[in-house]
């Protein structure tokens, strides 16, 4: 029996409904094609129009209602005629806090054919996982105003760092880093200037690191971090920081990787006591609302994260592969330099799902630059596990390759390409995902030849 998931869909304001419509269409399609799960959606119209009509963003039983769902898919909140501090606090921050979604996870990587904006950054250099403390810190809501309206008015905004809150996000970040191939974590801080909260932050990072001896970690002041992201992006993998720091850094990251329109996020309750909430990073985007040109990828990518969190890893990977392939073939909106509108990009992704490559990646086992002699190319070779087997692939790492950069892979045999269903196939495969091994620089020094040559030959023999 396919598993059935109940999803609360909250499109919210501005371009929220446009991109959530797109995500729902893609989710419907992937559920249909995969046959392994079903999704039912309830549309909850809690946004600024609801606020203007009722005086509240969330109905009094809103949080209890949300708890009945397996997950929440959220668009954006914010309207020109409502102060941002009201809309953000009364809806988004209330949900994140009350549902104890204390880990905000934001993957950022360059998709095929999207050039990074900085000439210092090569597409393959950006494959980051941001972990943002999502329940306290600078957005704890502590503070107030006194002497309102007088010349000596005073306002305080107090950042809160609790041992419990910092420890749980550090553990989550170290676990996330440990689950990724590079096992590398950077702890963002500002403990030189903020000598109480962020000194505690640093101390707890140090304590928690002892539970994760396999994770290599370093510490970075947030100001220097911006420079490192631009100048030395390949030195980063998993990044953890406070509510405010990662809010800012992840927007910079998204812009470096192409556009804020592709940035996805998950508000996770790691205890699974409450539903987690998945949303594009961008806001309501008043300037393009109603024009039909919003980039839907951030919302669609977020829905892939939702499937993964629900345990539907293959469905999630199908969506990600379809996104990659659509981008590789130039099906993008204007913010990424393309000519398509929201609906056309969505249709392109759905058509990729409708005609999936029969074998799709479930992860990579390794990459072997040493085996270049087996191919007629000068890229690296990898072995990818597919449903129903493994294939040898050519990792197209050159920028001018028309199929894109490192995250596009080309399946090959010893001579020529592998035929899948009688046709040469280019498989868009994320080889640097959580199952994979980041494939280039850091592996070059390793000699896997003896260990993997028999596997490699056996896999070739299968085809
Ligand atoms: N999570 C959220 O709901 C969230 C996040 C950020 C901002 N906001 C709210 O949204 C409103 C507007 O905020 P803002 O202008 O600072 O940020 P924004 O993210 O809405 O827009 C910033 C810029 O990015 C562009 N952009 C954003 N998403 C895009 C997409 N999918 N495709 C193409 N271009 C895209 C916009 O056109 C705009 O030029 C405010 O009310 C703010 O409070 C909400």
Structural account:
With 463 residues, this protein is α/β, with parallel strands linked by helices. It has 3 domains: 186 residues, Isopropylmalate Dehydrogenase, CATH 3.40.718.10; 143 residues, Isopropylmalate Dehydrogenase (3-Layer(aba) Sandwich), CATH 3.40.718.10; 102 residues, no CATH class. The chain contains 13 helices and 19 strands. The strands form 4 sheets. It has a 10-stranded mixed sheet with strand order 2-1-3-12-11-4-5-10-8-9, sandwiched between helices. It has a 5-stranded antiparallel sheet with strand order 13-14-15-16-19. Strands 6-7 form a two-stranded antiparallel sheet. A hairpin with a 7-residue loop joins β6 and β7. α5 packs across α6, α7 packs parallel to α8 and α9 packs antiparallel against α10. The longest helix has 19 residues. The protein is globular. The C terminus is likely disordered. Keywords: Manganese, Metal-binding, NAD, Oxidoreductase. It comes from Lipomyces starkeyi NRRL Y-11557. This is Isopropylmalate dehydrogenase-like domain-containing protein. GO terms for molecular function: metal ion binding; NAD binding; oxidoreductase activity, acting on the CH-OH group of donors, NAD or NADP as acceptor.
How are the SSEs placed, and which strands pair?
Layout: E1 3-12, H1 16-34, E2 37-43, H2 48-54, H3 62-66, E3 71-76, H4 84-98, E4 103-109, E5 127-133, E6 137-146, E7 154-160, H5 163-179, E8 184-189, H6 197-209, E9 216-221, H7 222-231, E10 238-241, H8 243-256, E11 264-268, E12 276-280, H9 297-310, H10 313-328, H11 342-354, E13 361-367, E14 380-386, E15 389-395, E16 409-411, E17 419-420, E18 423-424, E19 426-427, H12 441-444, H13 449-462
Parallel strand pairs: 1-2, 1-3, 3-12, 5-10, 8-9, 8-10
Antiparallel strand pairs: 4-5, 4-11, 6-7, 11-12, 13-14, 14-15, 15-16, 16-19, 17-18
This protein binds nicotinamide-adenine-dinucleotide.
Nicotinamide-adenine-dinucleotide (NAD) is lined by residues 15, 19, 76-78, 84, 88, 92, 260-261, 279, 282-288, 294-295, 298, 335.
């Amino acid at each position: 029996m396919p598993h059935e998931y109940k999803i609360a869909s909250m499109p919210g304001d501005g371009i929220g409904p446009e991109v959530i419509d797109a995500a729902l269409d893609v989710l419907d399609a992937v559920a249909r094609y995969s046959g392994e799960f079903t999704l039912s959606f309830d549309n909850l119209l809690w946004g600024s129009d609801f606020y203007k009509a009722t005086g509240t963003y969330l109905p009094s039983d809103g949080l209890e209602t949300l708890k009945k769902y397996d997950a929440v898919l959220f668009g954006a909140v914010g309207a020109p005629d409502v102060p941002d501090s009201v809309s953000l606090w009364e809806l988004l921050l209330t949900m994140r806090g009350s549902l104890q979604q204390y880990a905000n996870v934001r993957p950022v990587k360059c998709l095929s054919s999207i050039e990074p904006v900085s000439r210092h950054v090569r597409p393959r250099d950006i494959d980051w996982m941001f972990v943002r403390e999502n329940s306290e810190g600078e957005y704890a809501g502590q503070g107030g105003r006194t002497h309102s309206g007088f010349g000596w008015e005073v306002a305080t905004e107090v950042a809160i760092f609790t041992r419990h809150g910092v420890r749980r996000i550090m553990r989550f970040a170290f676990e996330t880093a440990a689950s990724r191939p590079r096992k590398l974590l950077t702890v963002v801080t500002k403990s030189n200037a903020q000598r109480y909260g962020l000194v505690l932050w640093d101390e707890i990072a140090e304590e928690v690191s002892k539970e994760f001896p396999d994770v290599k970690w370093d510490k970075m002041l947030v100001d220097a971090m911006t420079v490192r992201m631009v100048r030395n992006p390949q030195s980063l993998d998993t990044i953890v920081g406070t509510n405010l720091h990662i809010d800012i850094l992840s927007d910079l990251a998204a812009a470096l990787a192409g556009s804020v329109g592709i940035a996805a996020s998950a508000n996770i309750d790691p205890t699974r006591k409450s539903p987690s909430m998945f949303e594009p990073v961008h806001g309501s985007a008043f300037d393009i609302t109603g024009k039909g040109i919003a980039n839907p990828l951030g919302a669609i990518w977020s829905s892939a994260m939702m499937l993964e969190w629900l345990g539907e890893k293959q469905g999630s990977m199908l969506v990600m592969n379809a996104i990659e392939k659509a981008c590789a073939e130039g099906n993008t909106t204007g913010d990424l330099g393309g000519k398509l509108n929201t609906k056309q990009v969505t249709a392109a992704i759905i058509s990729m799902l409708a005609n999936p490559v029969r074998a799709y990646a479930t992860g990579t086992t390794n990459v072997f630059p040493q085996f270049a002699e087996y191919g007629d190319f000068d890229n690296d070779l990898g072995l990818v596990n597919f449903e129903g087997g493994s294939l040898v692939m050519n990792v197209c790492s050159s920028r001018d390759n028309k199929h894109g950069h490192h995250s596009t892979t080309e399946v090959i045999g010893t001579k020529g390409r592998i035929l899948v269903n009688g046709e040469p196939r280019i498989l868009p495969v994320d080889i640097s995902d959580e199952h994979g091994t980041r494939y280039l620089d850091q592996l070059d020094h390793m000699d896997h030849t003896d260990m993997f040559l028999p596997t490699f030959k056996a896999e070739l023999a299968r085809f």
